[in-house]
């Protein structure tokens, strides 16, 4: 995506990234987790803490200088990736995902993995369209928080 730059986050990036995470959760996760659950997660501070707790592995995507998405990854695993909800389906997520896959290859990983909620049909479709394969799915006993694990060969 032209004009998109991805780099390690600075401390000044934390607040804008936390805002993107809160807004993205409200607009997307409420669909499958429910508005009350998502609001509780955000209001408890857990959403913000997820970003600050993983600052050392946080990378931001800037489009024309403005933060429009982010990824947290380490050791061949994508922990969290979000794009400003206003830019979904604009190519930002694909660019971040491809950048992350390239970084993992450079770091010597031959396989990447990630998880998303089973109820997150939008994310599942996105990962499948980008060549990822579902390798595991939690059973019904996990309830609303069941996760699907995806993997992709990097060789």
TrEMBL record:
- In this protein, which residues make up the domain named N-acetyltransferase? 4-155
PROSITE patterns for this protein: GNAT
Q: Which InterPro entries match?
A: Acyl_CoA_acyltransferase (IPR016181), Bact_Acetyltransf (IPR050832), GNAT_dom (IPR000182)
Highest taxon, organism lineage? Bacteria
Annotated transmembrane regions? none
In terms of CDD domains, this protein maps to: NAT_SF
- Answer whether the UniProt record assigns the keyword Iron to this protein: no
Keywords carried by this UniProt record: Acyltransferase, Transferase
Name the PANTHER family on file. Answer: AMINOALKYLPHOSPHONATE N-ACETYLTRANSFERASE-RELATED (PTHR43877:SF2), AMINOALKYLPHOSPHONATE N-ACETYLTRANSFERASE-RELATED-RELATED (PTHR43877)
| Name of the protein | GNAT family N-acetyltransferase
Record organism? Ruegeria sediminis
